[in-house]
Design brief:
Blueprint (H helix, E strand, L loop, with lengths): L8 H4 L2 H32 L4 H13 L2 H12 L3 H25 L3 H9 L4 H32 L12 H9 L3 H29 L7 H12 L1
């Protein structure tokens, strides 16, 4: 699977290439986790008894140290990107499943009744009514999962995974090059900040009805009391 996303070797050898590979190894698992979380969360919403065991399982999996998870997978996926991506996708479930469940459950029953009266079936109502209203909660979960994934990708260098910014950290420690260490640490932090900011922008674009700032929320509250 990782071969589908391979980049030219000259790009991999540049700093921007490492940044691109780091983002790929961090964000593709979050995307996979989101796609898996959507049907799981919907089942938990419809079958309330299912939510506690699902939450328990995802929490137990999240408790497995990332390095131990990587080592377990080496026998099956080798020293590849999948060895890093699979645990990160699993870790994202513990954040995304509760975020989606809580967001969908927050949709008012009156809204669901109105959608049903308009002829919306369960699937259409889920994607066109419940998920858009739950978007703020879902994106909040995505922000946490993405930042966590970006930081954990660097741990992959301990098992020989190539391409991420963690390799700069490893090389800096081996060859006593503080510059490489700083490039790795600062680069990872900047990536996390930029991705988090991008998701905030996405939230603003998807939920134009929500106040965009504290002052806006205060203004809305004042108008509501008039």
């Amino acid at each position: 699977m990782s071969e589908l996303f391979d980049m030219p070797s000259d790009l991999q050898n540049s700093y921007l290439g490492l940044v691109a590979l780091h983002l790929r190894e961090a964000l593709l698992p979050v995307l996979a986790g989101l796609l898996a979380s959507l049907p799981i969360a919907q089942l938990c919403v419809r079958l309330r008894w299912l939510y506690p065991p699902v939450l328990w399982v995802t929490t137990v999996l999240y408790a497995i140290p990332s390095l131990a998870f990587f080592v377990i997978l080496i026998d099956y996926t080798g020293l590849s990107e999948l060895t890093v991506m699979i645990p990160l996708a699993v870790y994202s479930l513990v954040v995304l499943v509760p975020a989606i469940v809580d967001g969908v459950r927050s949709v008012p029953q009156e809204t669901l009744a109105a959608a049903t009266a308009m002829g919306f079936g369960p699937v259409r109502r889920y994607f066109q009514v419940q998920l858009p209203i739950a978007a703020p909660a879902i994106i909040a979960g995505l922000r946490i999962a993405s930042v966590s994934s970006i930081s954990l990708v660097s741990v992959g260098m301990l098992i020989g995974n190539q391409g991420a910014l963690g390799n700069l950290l490893n090389s800096g420690m081996i060859y006593n090059q503080p510059r490489l260490i700083w490039l790795s640490v600062v680069g990872t932090a900047v990536l996390a900040i930029l991705v988090d900011a991008a998701l905030i922008v996405v939230r603003v674009l998807l939920t134009p009805w929500m106040p965009r700032s504290t002052s806006a929320r205060r203004l809305t509250a004042k108008e509501a009391t008039r």
